[in-house]
């Protein structure tokens, strides 16, 4: 089957290539003048990085594997500084390229390393998780975490191309696969209800990489993301819809010292946002129930500790959608009808949390 190519518009348009066994397309995404390629990958995935380096060497590039800590531990300033030193050692110039190979944590780090090296070199992303393919590797949000909050340091730096080889999904740990489904379901609620129909029709199939609709789910979510970031790279307005569920999600991740899967936190955050919208008189109870049913049907959590609320409330203040002291949420006025809720009062925030508390 031919790979799908989803175009992302903008100042420098690029393609997201989706297919099985598509690694041979990588050299074609590097641009004309590259010589040295830094292949940033999770240290636990050398067997995934090796064929990437081999494909690059075969095409005449000097490929250098740069292992970084696994998962969220990569998104730290010390790791970023280590990459800068490696780039210097390799003599990376402005025409050279960073390739990010791994999950969203690795591609967020690799993207920010590319954005900051020499004030910006090309980055090509090779996501190897479901979440990386449908969300993190597309759209150019790059960055790292600090103790004070999630993704607080970063840059908008769109990739030169994104290569999604669906074969990589076959080796993914089940819980990480499920985490990626949360972002797919998010795309369903904010923009493409067919995604919800597909998951609801066969949740067991949706929860497996060899399920009948995997490629369609990936393509649909990528199209939602591409459409939005192509129109609003720097989150002037429209792009905020991709942040649905993330205000509470990022607070949960911080509370868990970044050891809680992103998608799992987003699932709880979406139910919270849905409850906020219901209590504000904007979303039907049936649509809120649909959040809980579709998320739980694939094994995602929809509740969090009751006593965590004061800490979560404090952490939500630093959300990037806030303006001054005004907290802003993406909420739904119906499925595929995203809106904003600005400055909700404290009782509403707490009441919505009681609905997700356990
Ligand atoms: N930039 C964005 O727009 C954006 C969007 C969504 C999420 N994110 C970020 O993405 C991160 C989450 O990404 P994630 O869910 O991919 O987690 P992750 O990067 O932590 O990867 C999850 C685990 O899967 C392993 N893994 C990766 N590919 C594998 C494979 N093919 N086979 C076996 N194991 C594999 C990783 O080593 C890791 O242990 C978070 O930091 C989140 O903030 C960013
Ligand atoms: O691409 C976006 O824009 C998103 O908001 C996608 C989110 O899924 C993603 O988790 C993103 O990293 C969150 O961004 P942040 O600006 O809230 O850190
Ligand atoms: Zn996310």
UniProtKB/TrEMBL annotation:
This is 3-dehydroquinate synthase. One of its GO terms (molecular function) is 3-dehydroquinate synthase activity. Pfam families: DHQ_synthase, DHQS_C. Its main location: cytoplasm. Zn(2+) binds at residues 183, 246, 262. Coiled coil: none annotated. Binds 1 divalent metal cation per subunit. Can use either Co(2+) or Zn(2+). Pathway: Metabolic intermediate biosynthesis; chorismate biosynthesis; chorismate from D-erythrose 4-phosphate and phosphoenolpyruvate: step 2/7. Residues 67-177 form the 3-dehydroquinate synthase N-terminal domain. Keywords: Amino-acid biosynthesis, Aromatic amino acid biosynthesis, Cobalt, Cytoplasm, Lyase, Metal-binding, NAD, Nucleotide-binding, Zinc. Belongs to the sugar phosphate cyclases superfamily. Dehydroquinate synthase family. Its cofactor is Co(2+); Zn(2+); NAD(+). InterPro entries: Dehydroquinate_synthase (IPR050071), DHQ_synth_AroB (IPR016037), DHQ_synth_fam (IPR030963), DHQS/DOIS_N (IPR030960), DHQS_C (IPR056179). CDD domains: DHQS. Transmembrane segments: none annotated. Residues 180-322 form the 3-dehydroquinate synthase C-terminal domain. Its EC number is 4.2.3.4. It catalyses: 7-phospho-2-dehydro-3-deoxy-D-arabino-heptonate = 3-dehydroquinate + phosphate. It is found in: Cytoplasm. It comes from the Bacteria.
